[in-house]
Amino acid sequence: MIFIDACFRKKTPYTPIWMMRQAGRYLPQYMEVRNSVKDFLALCKDPKLAAEVTLQPVDILDVDAAILFSDILVIPLEMGMDLKFKKGEGPVFENPIRDFKDLEKLYNYPEERLTYVYETIKIVRKKLSKKKALIGFSGSPWTIATYMVEGRGSKTYAAIKKLIYTNPKFMHALLIKLTEAIKAYLIKQIESGVNAVQIFDSWASALEKDKFFEFSWDYMVQIAEFIKDRYPNIPVILFPKGVAGYLDGIYGKFDVFSVDWGTPMDLAKNYLGDRYVLQGNLEPTRLYSKEATKEGVEKIIKIMGAKEGHIFNLGHGMLPDLPVENAKYLVELVHDLTKR
Amino acid sequence: MIFIDACFRKKTPYTPIWMMRQAGRYLPQYMEVRNSVKDFLALCKDPKLAAEVTLQPVDILDVDAAILFSDILVIPLEMGMDLKFKKGEGPVFENPIRDFKDLEKLYNYPEERLTYVYETIKIVRKKLSKKKALIGFSGSPWTIATYMVEGRGSKTYAAIKKLIYTNPKFMHALLIKLTEAIKAYLIKQIESGVNAVQIFDSWASALEKDKFFEFSWDYMVQIAEFIKDRYPNIPVILFPKGVAGYLDGIYGKFDVFSVDWGTPMDLAKNYLGDRYVLQGNLEPTRLYSKEATKEGVEKIIKIMGAKEGHIFNLGHGMLPDLPVENAKYLVELVHDLTKR
């Protein structure tokens, strides 16, 4: 698989590409499936339909990898938290976790209840071309914890940051619980057939530098090392979003560092390019325009070269109103421009 | 004034401190005034009350500078846009600006209608101790434009970024209009009595590097240079939030670079400390705890030294539920630890 070879810096015929949130609302075919079920969670929990939308972007765009269709919040859901997706507001937990008493109420071993995810993986892997990789994923402990503690979207993360500074013991207990669950969850994804895993730390940038390394990065690295020790042939991709100012502190045993669009690719290359394969980082809104797409792609390829050490991706997820046609154009362009 | 001397890197008896959003909801005295009027805008438009809340933090906390109480959106308001502050949602423009036709409808010279701001400044400057500085301010063209184009709070800034990539001519026209208004507005603030000005680019981080310099930073620098050419004794402070990855590109004639908490102070010092005085950058949520406050202050002072070249501040605005007691403690601590 070209994508897996690229994760290990092996020779590939071109730079592979996939797109974060490539299975999503910008695809009419996705909307059709999505509208056939009650809500977003119902789609995550239906292996047949989840497999179908996982496969769509591979068929439509010819990306080099599929990414499991699911949500980072299935872990707290299967820990027994009451998760609702409210229109215009996103995910909401009516009873957030704020202290040890709340924490004790959570179920252990959520990974054992996530059977619908493993079922989805098995269906996808059976139907997907052997040349294409299937990427499994999880949220990072910190990012999942922000939702569990804040209860709903927050601009300031005041509730969880108050805990960071006033009750770090509790915060570490919550993060350890999540870390253990994520380790087991990703191992089960691997044993069900995924070829690589990515950990999304979408709210990394909510933490100042020292606290990012203490409350987020260190746990991500623990998970990565746990996986690498057991499955050295499975690439581990880490994606801490918005940490351009913290790159000098990045450490750990993993394969691919995923670069968000707010981190200039040359900066990431200088700090991390020797140690890790870099993934990224086109500004997704460039896809509103073919010219802007081309300009962005050429700039990134100029920095990374049409050679090993780079996987093309967006610097953040696809938006619902981006034109499918431009996404197709992006895939073709990257394949064309990086042919060796 | 110690604060003004510090902006010009002159010798001062200690490192001065003020706090972004120091006149705000965490102060019971502010809430009393706020509750006596219909809404937030009514407070901005009442010079006597706006002056009162501007002065409160100087009296209560003994900070070294007052900052004018107002809002960055008074400019689009006085360009004729219908501004509402909706509960739980923040500011909303029901009719956002999306094309040249919308742009033509805006009034010119909003600065001439902002008389209530200049009135506030005159009252404050009359009542404020001669040892304390009064800081005037404006939003940056880009940050004000995001509100005018998006119409309401956005996580993705998809509407304005779509314009950046598909209709840059229109975006530049809007930004030029705002730049001209802000130049005139800040000059009028200075002529009314402010001793320094700060330009807040709160949404700098919504732009990838090249686009940040083209659509935001360049206009901020144009404004700064316009002011410095006319009033060389008025310090100009620029605050682009969330640009830790772009520091190598910072240029221009201004005095103080304000560092947000996501940009490590040692990184900012390495890139910019020789050219600009640095302001910042305590993580505001550290103020939930005295211990965390002390730890954060000591770390910053260790990097910047108890010497010229640094103005202490938070790395972002005060939050409504932070304890006043800890804010007082912070001011005393900074003054104590930096005595020369």
Topology readout:
2 copies of one chain form a homodimer.
Chain A: H1 2-7, H2 28-34, H3 40-44, H4 47-61, E1 65-67, H5 74-78, E2 83-86, E3 90-93, H6 100-105, H7 115-127, E4 133-139, H8 141-150, H9 158-166, H10 168-192, E5 196-201, H11 209-230, E6 236-240, E7 256-258, H12 265-272, E8 277-282, H13 290-304, E9 310-314, H14 324-337
Parallel strand pairs in A: 1-4, 4-5, 5-6, 6-7, 7-8, 8-9
Antiparallel strand pairs in A: 2-3
List keywords for this structure.
two-stranded antiparallel sheet; seven-stranded parallel β-sheet; 47% helix; TIM Barrel; 9 strands; homodimer; 340 residues; alpha/beta
Would you kindly provide a written description of the structure presented here, covering whatever features stand out?
The structure is a homodimer of 340-residue chains. Chain A is built from 14 helices and nine strands. Chain A is an alpha/beta fold and 340 residues long. Chain A has one domain (2-337): Alpha-Beta Barrel (TIM Barrel), CATH 3.20.20. The model of chain A has no long low-confidence stretch (mean pLDDT 97). The interface between A and B is medium-sized, with 35 and 35 residues.
Shape summary of chain A? globular
C-alpha-based Rg of chain A, rounded: 19 Å
Name of the top-level CATH class of chain A? Alpha Beta
How many structural domains are formed by the residues of chain A?
1
| Oligomeric category | homodimer
Main beta sheet strand tally, sense and closure of chain A: 7 strands, parallel
List the strand order in the largest sheet of chain A: 1-4-5-6-7-8-9
Distance between the termini of chain A: 16 Å
CATH-level-2 architecture of chain A: Alpha-Beta Barrel
Helices of chain A, by number, come to 14
Q: Would you identify the regions of chain A where 5 or more consecutive residues have pLDDT less than 50?
A: none
What is the N-to-C succession of helices and strands of chain A? HHHHEHEEHHEHHHEHEEHEHEH
Q: How many strands of chain A?
A: 9
Range of helix content of chain A: 40-55%
Main interface by residue count: A-B, 35 and 35 residues
Q: Average the pLDDT over all residues of chain A and give the rounded result.
A: 97
- Percent of residues in β-strands of chain A: 5-15%
Task: Look at the helices and sheets of chain A and give the structural class.
Answer: alpha/beta
CATH topology of chain A, what is it called?
TIM Barrel
